[in-house]
Amino acid sequence: MEKTLTKEFTKGFWEILPPFRLVLGLCPVLAVTKYAENGIGMGLATTFVLLFSNIIISSLKSIIPKKVRIAAYIVIIATFVVIVELLMQAFFFPIYEKLGIFIPLIVVNCIILGRAEAFASKNPIYLSAADGLGVGLGFTLSLFFVGSLREILGYGSFLGMDIMWETFKPFSFMIEAPGAFVCLGLLLAVINLISKK
Amino acid sequence: MEYIILAINAILVKNILLAEYLGNCPFMGVSKKMDTAVGMGVSVIFVITFATAITWFFHYYFLVAFHLEYLQTIVFILVIAALVQLVEMFLKKLVPPLYKALGIFLPLITTNCAVLGAALLCIRRDFDFVESSIFAFASGVGFSLALVLFSGIRERFEISHIPRALQDTAIALVMAGLMALAFLGFKGVDSSLKALTM
Lengths: 197, 198
Hints:
The complex is a heterodimer.
Chain A: H1 5-10, H2 26-31, H3 36-59, H4 69-91, H5 93-99, H6 110-120, H7 125-155, E1 157-158, E2 161-162, H8 177-195
Antiparallel strand pairs in A: 1-2
Helix pairs in contact in A: 3-4, 3-5, 3-6, 3-7, 4-5, 4-6, 6-7
Chain B: H1 2-13, H2 24-29, H3 34-63, H4 72-94, H5 96-102, H6 106-109, H7 113-124, H8 129-157, H9 169-184, H10 187-197
Helix pairs in contact in B: 1-8, 1-10, 3-4, 3-7, 3-8, 4-5, 7-8, 8-9
């Protein structure tokens, strides 16, 4: 199969849509999706790290020795995580406060290391950039989707605005930890059902 | 007594896997068989305790002393990666049987967010050294407890009929949700323990 820019970009939205088709990086999906807004913030932060770490790793792939490649990847990823942490602290402080510990934890998000190992270390820079951006935006989309679902059912609001009818009783189950697991599991089942056809 | 409350809190009430949402990738990945789950659990207890103790020292005597707090993430992950490597070499040389049992899990632990997460949580909650060590050890125990229990349930899936769409990860996630619900039941333990010490 020929590798084209658009194909590498769009595969992140369905073919390997994280975290549903590519079951990696579950922690942020469960932890920060109480509100749709947090989901977008986390997704975009991850996209930033994924895009730049893919570009750097792809351009250094011939220099990094095979034996210490994982350590090298982690250092590169950690550098971008620190950059995104400082940027968010400066410009998006409320979201930074809400995401808390999960911003530094982007370092150990398996999606990023997974893409570095499976894609960026074998492919040219422009394809790796497309892959990083596509997978990152796909991840953002999933986070936004799970976040909206949990926010609408759990609080009766969407992006902070009340949208449900007056007599609607929010399910507090959805915003607790068990709701996060069950919600993600059922969504995964729905996506399996659609893609099995 | 405070320490016991802290430990029980970390193991049951605020279980690192089911209430703090940390370390879910290995939770889904290695919970298919009971013995791999036990191996992973033991390795995590080991690494998480040492990693938290060492990163605590690094944070207060190196980063804070030189005003380099913004490098926290990089330093912590490097310390953890180095520690995991060290533990691996140490076990290989001195305790070969244990190395054989745990060997394949050790490299995976570097990217286990429970380890980095516990280290960061200790700093953010301003724990002192003893509290950090106890918290980390108890978190490791909580992680293993949840993982081993979960793998026991997952082994049962093999012999039951599950709709095709729900197979594998989907049913595992729903199951984890039910388990988290059960662990939510420990919430009362916290307040009653505190009342005991009053």
